[in-house]
Design a protein that fits this description.
Helix 6 crosses helix 7 and helix 17 crosses helix 24. This protein folds into 4 domains: 181 residues, Nucleotidyltransferase, domain 5; 192 residues, no CATH class; 86 residues, Alpha-Beta Plaits (2-Layer Sandwich), CATH 3.30.70; 87 residues, no CATH class. Strand 16 and strand 17 form a beta hairpin. The chain starts with a strand and ends in a 5-residue tail after the last strand. It is of the alpha+beta class. The longest helix is centred in the first third of the chain and has 25 residues. Helix content is 45%, strand content 17%. It is globular and about 75 Å long.
């Protein structure tokens, strides 16, 4: 039988800054109410003073399944407060838990309980008065003589809050009844996610503090430099209006940008605009100098050091709860807290070749030295880029352990070619050869181009392979090449005819991929038009059908996992060749309301290709942790970072060379559902994370 649960808590900690795990572990955090219901039984409210006795009285049966909305929070509160503080049984085993928020995300629904209730027309009304009472109880009204927070203990407010707590559990129970269950084939990944989030990754908080302090001093120094070089016209990098006026006064025409909210066009100095002006030969040098400071001082990545300090557990320095299961449509994870999936890479315009291990160590040593003048004299306007470029180095293994890391090579491209049955490209991967070189030779009608001998041509071949697989048009391709190269300080503005040649070459060479776009769209449309029938694409490896209740178009991946499209319909739309059928479904708009959006073959292929790549990584996660040799602490779309027990015995499982090769091997194990998919992984060992 399912048990539905919701905790109400308060703390001197700000959960928005420190995250659910750090919040739950803090001694000041307390449970002020528990709403709980078993099956279809009545909702029971455990009042604040009764929580300890209730926790001690609990017994847990093996078949218990606790359902919460946003299970990470309830999971953390249970472990740190209910179990460790009040003596309830441990529920660290993820088999005991289920999450309606994860299941809502799986369906493409809004993830907040209120918005989900509106989408599904759940028979639960918002309790605004109860919400307001909760906020009054949780917000300190003062401090005592020790400096501890003093809270409002008005009994009337508590009564309103208890009612509000019960409504949340009712809403969770109603959502549970109408949402599909977490798919059986993916339940092991859901459970692995809870384990990895509870395990967390260790932060070097001393380095993070030193870096945060240095960043603050550097920003002040950059502002002083701006003031000096502009004669006081620009007082700080944050004064965008002053900077715009300075640029115009020096003969620069600023780029314009349309607001997504108001459709108004205005001058901008956003990141893309700054890159454009820095790359333009017509931009005066004084303006480039000013914009170079703007590019440095505008970096938000250094703020992650402060986030690490907020999130890290003071006992073991670990960052917990940094991932959200099914955070994106195809089932990929989303980052939370420090956002480990989008930590700044070392490669940038300031460091176009990246920051290798020796340079990472040197920059970190300079950070720990803390001398701002020395740091600035060494790195100049690259100072903040140096700080952000080594942020991954603030992730370190536990004492007595080292990191084994590995990336899956070109996993998304490999999956795409495998789905399309593109035998020539698959053969190159199987032989250890480069499709990027092969593509470059095809574009330039050569047969002698190489990666090292022809870097510009190779780069275009690589960008074509990576960018053209989902139907990108010529204009967007040229634009994307410029955007990506500008980030590295090497802006490449492709002539339109060369961009057209690259796209044409891809579609000509990989006609199987182009056919896949049309096949996927036709299969999806046919499934919507004829409920009850199944339509295959991707050489029979991907299938579309309507759900039995006809709420969803289901895309079944080779692993057996599903991608959900809510309320699908087929509509007529204009195209260059006349009216054609197009697929629509309901997605989440920026305001959280679900609205119709259109899709097409290339986008459908992108969805299931990313989904398959995610399942390959998930398979690698299961294989990596199969016998306890590896503890995954961080992962991204194609990467695993694991802690391994240190042991210098040659050939032993704890030796670094063995561990890296073994992780590469396990990540490269081809799942039983993907015969013929050529996988390869490459990694390193270290005592600091890097990229």
């Amino acid at each position: 039988m399912k048990t539905y649960i919701d905790f109400e808590t308060r703390s001197s900690r700000d959960i928005k800054k420190c995250g659910g795990y750090r919040y739950a572990a803090d001694p000041s955090t307390e449970i002020i109410a528990i709403a709980i219901a078993q099956g279809d039984g009545p909702v029971k409210i455990i009042r604040k003073g009764d929580v300890p006795a209730f926790a001690r009285s609990l017994t847990v049966r093996p078949e218990t399944r606790l359902v919460a909305h946003g299970v990470q929070f309830e999971f953390a509160v249970w472990q740190f407060i209910m179990h460790l503080r009040h003596g309830a049984p441990s529920l660290i085993d993820p088999k005991f838990w289920d999450c309606t928020m994860a299941r809502a995300a799986m369906c493409g629904f809004p993830q907040s309980l209120d918005a989900l209730g509106n989408t599904l027309n759940l028979a639960v009304k918002k309790d605004l008065e109860g919400r307001a009472a909760l906020m009054k109880i949780c917000k300190p009204i003062g401090r005592d003589w020790l400096g501890d927070p003093v809270f409002n203990e008005d009994p009337a407010l508590y009564e309103k809050m208890y009612a509000y707590n019960g409504i949340d559990v009712e809403a969770t129970r109603l959502a549970d009844k109408v949402l599909p269950e977490i798919l059986a084939v993916d339940r092991p990944i859901f459970e692995k996610d809870l384990i990895i989030n509870m395990r967390g990754m260790r932060a070097d908080t001393k380095m993070a503090r030193a870096a945060a302090q240095l960043a603050e001093k550097l920003e002040a120094k950059l502002d002083a430099d701006l003031n000096r070089m502009t004669g006081g016209a620009v007082s700080a990098a944050s004064r965008v209006g002053e900077m715009k006026r300075f640029c115009v006064a020096n003969g620069v025409t600023l780029p314009t940008k349309m607001s997504k909210d108001t459709d108004e066009v205005s001058e901008t100095l956003d990141k893309a605009a700054v890159n454009d002006l820095l790359a333009a030969a017509s931009t005066p040098q004084i303006v480039k100098d000013v914009l170079a400071v703007r590019a440095q001082a505008g970096k938000t990545s250094t703020a992650k050091y402060t986030a690490m300090i907020e999130v890290a557990d003071p006992v073991d320095e670990r960052l917990r709860g940094q991932y959200q299961y099914w955070g994106a449509g195809p089932g990929r994870w989303a980052g939370r807290g420090v956002q480990p999936q989008n930590l700044t890479k070392s490669q940038s315009a300031a460091f176009p070749d990246g920051i290798k291990a020796p340079q990472q160590a040197a920059i970190i040593a300079d950070i720990m030295d803390g001398d701002v003048e020395k740091f600035y004299s060494k790195y100049g306007v690259r100072a903040l880029s140096a700080l952000s470029g080594v942020i991954r180095g603030a992730i370190v293994p536990a004492d007595g352990k080292f990191f084994a890391q590995a990336d899956l090579n070109a996993i998304e491209v490999r999956c795409l070619f495998w789905e399309a049955g593109e035998s020539s490209a698959l053969a190159l991967y199987a032989q250890g050869k480069s499709p990027y070189v092969d593509m470059a030779n095809y574009i330039y009608k050569r047969n002698d181009l190489t990666k090292t001998g022809n870097p510009t041509e190779y780069d275009l071949g690589k960008r074509t392979i990576l960018g053209a697989g989902y139907g990108m048009g010529v204009d967007r391709f040229v634009e994307s090449v410029y955007e990506e190269t500008a980030k590295l300080g090497r802006p490449m503005l492709l002539p339109l005819d060369l961009g057209e040649r690259a796209i044409k070459a891809y579609r000509e060479k990989y006609r199987t991929v182009v056919n896949l776009w049309y096949s996927a769209e036709a299969a999806a449309i046919a499934a919507v038009r004829t409920p009850g029938t199944i339509h295959a694409t991707a050489k029979g490896q991907v299938h579309y059908k309507m759900s039995d209740d006809r709420r969803f178009l289901l895309c079944r991946l080779p692993s057996g996992r599903l991608i959900f499209y809510y309320k699908p319909t087929v509509v007529k739309t204009d195209s260059p060749v006349g009216p054609k059928d197009a697929l629509q479904y309901y997605g989440i708009a920026k305001n959280g309301i679900m609205r119709p959006e259109s899709t097409w073959g290339g986008k459908l292929v992108e969805n299931f290709t990313q989904g398959i790549a995610r399942d390959v990584l998930g398979n690698g996660m299961i294989e990596a942790e199969r016998d306890g040799m590896f503890d995954i602490v961080l992962h991204s779309h194609d990467e695993l970072l694991c802690e391994v027990e240190e042991d210098d015995t040659p050939g032993d499982s704890g030796s670094r060379p063995y561990a890296v090769k073994e992780l590469e091997r396990r990540m490269s194990i081809v799942p039983s559902w993907a015969p013929g998919l050529p996988l390869a992984a490459e990694g390193y060992s270290a005592t600091r994370y890097r990229k």
